[in-house]
Recover the amino acids of this structure.
């Protein structure tokens, strides 16, 4: 049953991201004709306060992080509800192929958990599991995007929000909401999926037109995520920690080769790069990846989805910090 709109709580208008080096809050205002960022704040975090990980506690000092959350929210209108973005490195994303999809939801859930139990880095009974239908297989069946995060780790992030006076009504990972932003702003990329479920972690496919493959590279201080999307369906995802001597361009090139050799890729229509990192690192990454792939790499610009007041001058690192929380707010409002 679908409730009338006056009985349904509106989606949060403030996005909050708790990253390893900062807390970002963004207030978004929408009308029938425009979307605007009305307020934002980025509060730096000292090294070690947030350590994204799959199987160990993520927040070292909850009181300090909660104060940073409170400071960011105070600059964004002190909302009571927020859409919360957590680091990619706190989650495990898998692409699960099923030749036959059970018709009963209980059987489907049990099958997914049984399959994920084989590779989960922690007991599946401790996991919060999100499942989204992806591409349909030519031989029947479908591929599913399965995201795992330990419940106690989700609780850590939710707890610092509560301590700061806000309820995290929606929780999602960073890169999925950068994908949302692309889908909502680059309308030449993706097309609707005929058999997708009514609720998706990615943006509604009906918001875009066309059907092409594209890549998104998301840089964070200690890891890099690479997503390849076919239209509006995720077909490849990898998050890996940054180690001494790592070459981002090599990782991107290896991902492209896997896409072409193993996924039947016929070429990437677009490649986007983003990250809330310093300007020099971002510019260097753009240059290196362009050189390695021998093509233009596009910086992802949140201002295509939500305008900033003219008086605000935005540094590239701020554009990167605002992107994921704006993407989550707009996904929920779409």
């Amino acid at each position: 049953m679908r409730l009338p709109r006056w009985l349904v709580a509106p989606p949060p208008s403030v996005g909050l991201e708790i990253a390893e080096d900062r807390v970002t809050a963004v207030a978004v205002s929408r009308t029938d004709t425009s979307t605007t960022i009305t307020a934002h704040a980025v509060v730096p975090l000292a090294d070690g306060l947030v350590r994204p990980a799959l199987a160990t506690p993520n927040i070292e000092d909850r009181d300090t992080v909660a104060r940073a959350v409170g400071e960011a929210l105070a600059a964004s209108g002190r909302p009571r509800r927020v859409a919360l973005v957590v680091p990619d490195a706190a989650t495990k994303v898998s692409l699960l192929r099923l030749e036959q999809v059970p018709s009963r939801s209980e059987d489907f859930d049990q099958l997914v958990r049984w399959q994920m139990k084989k590779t989960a880095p922690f007991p599946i009974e401790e996991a919060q599991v999100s499942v989204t239908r992806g591409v349909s297989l030519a031989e029947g069946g479908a591929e599913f995007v399965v995201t795992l995060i330990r419940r106690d780790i989700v609780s850590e992030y939710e707890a610092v929000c509560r301590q700061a006076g806000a309820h995290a009504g929606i929780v999602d990972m960073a890169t999925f909401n950068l994908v949302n932003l692309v889908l909502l702003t680059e309308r030449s990329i993706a097309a609707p999926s005929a058999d997708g479920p009514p609720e998706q972690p990615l943006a509604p496919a009906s918001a875009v037109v066309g059907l092409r493959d594209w890549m998104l590279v998301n840089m964070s201080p200690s890891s890099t995520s690479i997503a390849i999307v076919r239209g509006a369906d995720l077909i490849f995802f990898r998050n890996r920690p940054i180690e001494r001597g790592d070459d981002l361009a090599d990782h991107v090139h290896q991902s492209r080769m896997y896409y072409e050799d193993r996924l039947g890729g016929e070429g990437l229509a677009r490649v986007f790069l983003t990250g809330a990192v310093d300007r020099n690192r971002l510019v260097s990454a753009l240059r290196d990846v362009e050189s390695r792939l021998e093509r233009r790499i596009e910086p992802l610009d949140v201002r295509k989805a939500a305008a900033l007041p003219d008086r605000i001058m935005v540094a590239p690192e701020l554009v990167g910090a605002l992107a994921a929380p704006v993407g989550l707010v707009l996904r929920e409002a779409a």
About this structure: The CA atoms of residues 10 and 271 lie 34 Å apart. The first helix runs from residue 62 to 74. The chain has seven helices and 13 strands.
